[in-house]
Structures are given as structure tokens and as C-alpha cells.
Amino acid sequence: MLHLSIEQQAVKPFLLADIGEGIAEVELLKWYVKEGDAIRQFDPLCEVQSDKANVEISSRFDGVVTALSHAEGDIALVGEPLLTVSYTHLTLPTIYSV
Question: For residue 22, what are the contacts with CB-CB under 8 A and spacing of at least 6?
Fold first, then answer.
């Protein structure tokens, strides 16, 4: 038997999630990453401020930052991209009988 899996590169927008009840927008206070940085799951990406609290946003997956969508001081809306991340994922193994 032969097992094959394929690595594929993908680019994915990292959307600003709802960080609290009724929060529709936040101010981006500080970036902890820049374009080209490798990131891992749970790494801090940025700090944002709503009208209720300051929150540190962390990565949900591993990858490389390909673009920042906002500058420090910008207003970011919930559901819109904060940044774009390139990541590698493996397809499910394909099993061939030989």
C-alpha cells in the first residue's frame, strides 16, 4: 500500500471576531506582528480597544502574516479582516493498493 498526502498553501483572512456583547467595532491599538512574520496558534497578534475593554487578539492557527489590513489607530469592524495569513495544510491521505 502507498499512502500519499499533499501539502497545499492557502491564504486566509483573519476576521475580527465578536469580542463582547454588542461590540461592533474596535480601535487597533498595537500590532505585535508584521508582514512576513511566522505565527503559531495562540500567539498574540494585536491589541484592540472597544468602548468597554482592551483585548489582546491571538492567532487561531499557524502560518505566515502576508498582509495587515489596518494601521495602528484605525477602526476595525467585527467580521472584517484584521490581517491575512498564508498557511500550509495537508490533504487527507490517499491510500493506493499496489
Answer: none
C-alpha to C-alpha distance for 85 and 64, rounded to whole angstroms: 5
* Cα-to-chain-centroid distance, residue 33: 11
| Model confidence pTM above 0.85 | no
Q: Three cell numbers at 10?
A: 492557502
**CA-to-CA distance for 48 and 23, rounded, in angstroms?**
12
CA atoms of 89 and 96, how far apart (whole Å): 21
The 10s digit of each residue's pLDDT in 48-88 is: 999 888 999 999 989 999 999 999 999 999 999 999 999 87
Residue that has been written with the C-alpha cell 454588542 in this structure: 22
> Are residues 41 and 61 in contact, defined by beta-carbon separation less than 8 angstroms?
yes
The residue behind cell 491589541 is 47
What residue ranges in the chain does DSSP mark as E strands?
Answer: 2-4, 7-15, 25-31, 38-39, 44-49, 54-58, 63-68, 75-77, 81-90, 94-96
